Amino acid sequence: MEQASQIINGASAPSGTKEYLTFNLGGEEYGLDILKVQEIRGYDAVTRIANTPEFMKGVINLRGVIVPIVDMRIKFNLGTVEYGEFTVVIILNILNRVVGIVVDGVSDVVALLPEQIRPAPELSSSMDTSYIAGLANSDERLLILVDIEKLLSSTDMQLMDLAA
Q: pTM surpassing 0.85?
């Protein structure tokens, strides 16, 4: 933990350290590889696209680039979606595409060593948890590390291509 704090404060990173942007979603805290994050924006109106899945909120025009927006609360089946002042869109660069994900809020950036990351427990075979890259403790909080490329599976990405 001390090493992670040093990295955030500008000290050199131990080899193998990886940084994660943490965000809140339905009362849980998640982390994703910071190298995939392009920017963070406040939630703004989107242009709906007909016949898309419910989790796909629509598209925005981001400086001339049409960006599909995915609501992670709907994607994770976390109940009613209410947008507030802390609701943000994380713009990601994944697989040579720009995609936005709506989350309840962002927390901070944490640096984790590989030994701080534990594999996700095996759950029922009927649940797809392949997108969970692992679980990590950081400052006495549990982070669910998301492999965003696996989460936005190829089928979902095809839908995003149609919308873009």
A: no
Residues in the chain: 164
Question: What tokens appear for 47 in the block?
Answer: 């242009």
Task: Specify which residues 56 forms β-bridges with.
Answer: 70
C-beta of residue 80 within 8 angstroms of C-beta of residue 98:
no
Q: Return phi, psi of residue 148, to 5°.
A: -65, -30
Helix (H) or strand (E) holding 162, with range, is helix 154-163
pLDDT in tens, 29-72: 999 999 999 999 999 989 999 988 889 999 999 999 999 999 99
Give the number of other Cβ atoms within 10 Å of residue 105's Cβ.
15
Tokens of residue 108, six digits: 């901070």
- What does the alpha-carbon distance between residue 149 and residue 154 come to, in Å, rounded to a whole number? 9
115-143 burial string, b = 16+ CB within 10 Å, else e? ebbeeeeeeeeeeeeebbbbbbebeeeeb
Cβ atoms 45, 87 nearer than 8 A: no
Tell the burial category of 113 from Cβ atoms under 10 Å away from its Cβ (0-12, 13-18, 19+).
Answer: middle
